Please model this.
Amino acid sequence: MLELFTELTGNALLGMIINSLIPLVFVIPLALFFVWLERKVSAHMQDRLGPMITGSHGWLQTFADVLKLLQKEDIIPADADRKLFTIAPILVFAGSYAAFAAIPFSSAYIGSEIDMGIFYVVAVSGLVVAGILMAGWSSNNKYSLLGAMRSVAQIISYEIPTVLVILSIVVLAGTLNLLKISEMQTAYFWNWFIFGGPEPGLIKFLLIPFMFAGFLILYISSLAEVNRTPFDIPEAESELVAGYHTEYSGMKFAMFFLSEYANMFVVSAIVSAVFFGGYQSPFGYLGNSLGISWLVPIEQFFWFTAKGIFFVFVQMWLRWTLPRLRVDQLMAVCWKYLIPYSFVNLIIIAFLELYR
Amino acid sequence: MSIKTEHMVLNMGPQHPSTHGVLRLELELNGELIVNVKPHIGYLHRCFEKHAEAMTYPQIIPYTDRIDYLASISNNFGYAVTVEKLMGIQVPERVEYIRVIFGELQRIASHLVAIGTYGLDIGAFTPFLYCFRDREKILSLFEMTCGARLLYNYIWVGGLSHDIHPEFVRLTREFLNYFRPQVEEVNQLLSYNKIFIERTANIGILPAETAINFGMTGPNLRGSGVKFDLRRNDPYSIYDRFDFDIPVGDGRMGTVGDCWDRYFVRVLEIEQSIRIIEQALDQIPEGDVSSAIPKRIKPPVGSVYGRVENPRGELGYFLISDGGLNPFRLKVRGPSFVSLSVMGELCKGHLIADVIAILGSIDIVLGEVDR
Amino acid sequence: MKSSKEIFEILKDEFGDKILELKEDIPVDPYIIVTPDSTEKIARFLHDSSDLQFDSLMVLSGVDDNNPVKTKNEDGTESLSGGTLSVYYHLYSIPLNHKIVIRAVTEKENPMVQSVESVWKTADWHEREAFDMVGIRFENHPDLTRILLPYDWDESSFPLRKDYKNPEFYQGMKIPY
Model:
């Protein structure tokens, strides 16, 4: 795609800029859509209607909200560390936006087809931690500080099971490149890694239970990484008011807010890329059977978005159903259960792969 | 080398999402561990007792509404019972039945708020709205009767401000039939949720002896396993005519007297209130509701302590009369005021998140704490 | 279950002249008047005695009795002084299901009553409230500070006293503003 843009504009730099702006065009409306979806999902789960006035079924509500946030006065507390306070939301948003660079939207578009794709996504998401810690520290507010400390402890802890599960997929796929991992799971849904991967045989069936276990671990820890209920301890409203972004308002707050929703999509995209075939359709492509080759990437993009939105929906579903864990219980879940299980899972999958 | 460390002081409130009003808790923290909790109250002090000394007896009733604004009818009830006790007024049967029905409906409404906001404190938002949805239906029943949804001024000394609406009995029955299964839904969603149990069981354990010594009453006392309910142990009005159970905490999920027990006693009490209302609806006689209202309320010289079972515990009015038109002294014993004093005792050694769980489980209304 | 009369007899036997009087002639609750310097001992006895078992202090109220002594000044004007403040203890026994009201009367000039906080923990806040509103000082109370009023409220101003006058200024702000 980069070459295409370079050719079109005749300038390598311009091509690069356009190439990197595509996810932004995708991410911001998507984040706004998720905010709206969250409100609608929660409303319907709670016997309410949610936003109904602005646009049909309130679809313009989040646009209105963002416009409002843009116009708001930008308040920086007197005793805050001004530099860090300003950088923090940018860093958080940059972290979640940078992750989109290595996520394949379809076979035709991936921001950067680097060979360490998934490793890069996990690593660059770690940038969010720095941003959160900055926000908590610079706000000069005890609630923010507690929230930031909790958040950092939580995200770092939960990265371990995430990485271990991803590693088990890497063992099967033999590559870190997300495009290649997605490409492997082509054709029908039984080629997805959740059903044991593309290679047929007895091993494939033996792998299925461990794949499901891996998926559950990955999904749970991804919930924790994006601070969603039941792991929304860093911003636990009833305890820490709003955690690390208590002191933020206006556009800075909006950046935290949008990056949270963008992050939700990132982790959902990873889950779907490694276990559910990424952008692959579960049952072949209309474009292939009709012989219209340009339809295929569009269909792929549809499936990719649909899977992502489905997993985001499940996150919302959980959020509006479950109470919140306590901070020590959260750590116990990670260190006492998820990490040992994911280790065992990894070892078993590696053995099965070895004797394939 | 030893590093010098000091405890962090965190002011929780007066503006904080889960202090249930304007309460300030001064937390002394060691990391996230609570070393000491000191509640500071009085932010909502409205001089009820001073006001009462300057007003006639009927004028005080609207002020009693505002003591515990989530259970206004129960406050009216307690005040009316106290003044009637001092004056020796016998109220008509119909009035007694209506009072009981309203008192119990109010108890359900108040417990729904308690359960819902407790879920909110623990992080579950949805049960809160389910509870409020059903509470709205009860408030509509009240609105139909006396025109108000929150502060009713309904129970007067010697009678009621209005008779019930002709449709009231039918609609109340309809509501109860609708409402019964809803309790089960809340149980499935919240009470038996694994995370909820993890958060509340074995947290903030209040042994029976301590509870009595701290003067805890109502669901907080029953949560500690003490089978004590004023409706049964010191009956007022016509509560001795009804058949109902007194649920007590049994330590089903942890230890007797923990947060889960206190919470669950409220859920079970809703069931018992429904039973009382159903019996009262069956037995309610015809009659006049205002025949016993005195023209002029002028109690004899004397003093009386009247107490009723409010949704939050024992609501007591200590009334001294000097024979005039105004009370000489009217002291209110708010259950929340007493319950809140146990916070410091309960919180020691827990985490910040547990402070919220404990505060929610003792279910205070700051309007009543500060009066 | 014991009547007020029986409880009065028991207390009279135990404490003698510390127990002053049983007031039964006015409605509705009879009460026992005791001296303020021995409330803690009496409370301890009421709480621990196996015949009485008053394990629950329902409410503790401070009351201004509004009985100042009128004195004629030399120039013919009248001035009020003295009078008493009372503390009412409403006690209840959950196991035995009986009640009693104890009243301790103290001088308004120097209102001092023994604290019963060590017997019933619930008295802690009630006594603070009585101090806050009526100005009764409780001996041996661990933390006798304002509770409902602000901590910086005028030290000698107690709103529920009958001779209370609205202050003109609060922290330099005029009332009513």
Q: What stands out?
A: The domain at 8-369 of chain B is CATH 1.10.645.10 (Cytochrome-c3 Hydrogenase; chain B). Chain B has a mean pLDDT of 86.
